[in-house]
Amino acid sequence: MSVPLYQAKAEFFRTLGHPARIRILELLSERDHAVHELLDEITIEPSNLSQQLSVLRRSSMVVSRRRDGEVVYSISAPEVRDLLLAARRILLGLAAQLADLEPELTPPQPSGSQRRQAR
Amino acid sequence: MSVPLYQAKAEFFRTLGHPARIRILELLSERDHAVHELLDEITIEPSNLSQQLSVLRRSSMVVSRRRDGEVVYSISAPEVRDLLLAARRILLGLAAQLADLEPELTPPQPSGSQRRQAR
DNA sequence: TGATCACTTGCAAAGGTGTTCAATTGTTGT
DNA sequence: ACAACAATTGAACACCTTTGCAAGTGATCA
């Protein structure tokens, strides 16, 4: 293998590491979308959307085709959906753990709201 | 929820987006490791390793504790393991697709080692 | 106490990423 | 052929990350 797998993985995750790209993938994992449909859902400049789409295209996570004067994008690896779900599970799990350890943080508790957090 | 979920997800994936951090998580998902054990496995300056560990700590993906004069790290969300596996599956799937679409690019292989993998 | 080991932190240089605007391509309708 | 639309590209700038070195902390042991 030319590129070590852990490096390919890192690149892959970096590709996912942008809010707009996450939203795009979430929308596409429901159904194919034309660019202007994505624009309706995501608050972003058209050119910026295009940039993000091109990042996803470069990584082969999505493909585009032209249909009736629009460009339609689809997910090329349906398993991406599972990945996003797995991420949500982990995220919610971590959040729950945090809430557990520091229940005194969230509501504006007056007395001794000192945060100790192992520096 | 204060931070939109898709933004938290992006942050989460960005945390995974570094080769050293991937390796650390892979090692930790096998078993807990002391810092110097990680150093033996990963080719990296100690201070750099420390920085990467601190990124993982900040995101609550790992926790550290001191034991017998060493600092031992462990994974705090065991599901991370599934996530790494899911990533590998997708990565290998994408690679296979690429190999399929452009068999003429890599080696000039003549006879049919074709792989088909229906989009 | 002082030396040493095991890590961590601060910081500056270098490199990389994201955002926007303007310009461009390509397609469709008149 | 031209205008209008849809999407993309290029370039400049700001911002963030990574890296390595030097310095620092904090525990353990002679």
Q: Any chance you could write out the topology, listing elements then pairs?
A:
2 copies of one chain form a homodimer.
Chain A: H1 5-16, H2 19-30, E1 33-34, H3 35-41, H4 46-58, E2 62-67, E3 70-75, H5 80-101
Antiparallel strand pairs in A: 1-3, 2-3
Chain A binds a DNA duplex (30 and 30 nucleotides) through residues 14, 18, 34-36, 44-54, 66, 68-71.
CATH topology of chain A: Arc Repressor Mutant, subunit A
- The first-level CATH class of chain A is given as Mainly Alpha
User: Average pLDDT of chain A, to the nearest integer?
Assistant: 86
Largest inter-chain contact set: A-B, 39 and 40 residues
Number of strands of chain A: 3
Q: What's the CATH architecture of chain A?
A: Orthogonal Bundle
Give the low-confidence spans of chain A: 108-119
Report the end-to-end length of chain A measured between terminal Cα atoms.
42 Å
Most strands sheet of chain A: 3 strands, antiparallel
Number of domains of chain A: 1
Alpha plus pi helix count of chain A: 5
* Backbone shape of chain A: globular
Radius of gyration of chain A: 19 Å
- Helix-residue proportion of chain A: 55-70%
Widest β-sheet, arrangement of strands of chain A: 1-3-2
CATH homologous superfamily classification of chain A: Winged helix-like DNA-binding domain superfamily/Winged helix DNA-binding domain
- SSE succession of chain A: HHEHHEEH
Structural class of chain A: mainly alpha
Oligomer: homodimer
> What percent of residues of chain A are in strands?
5-15%
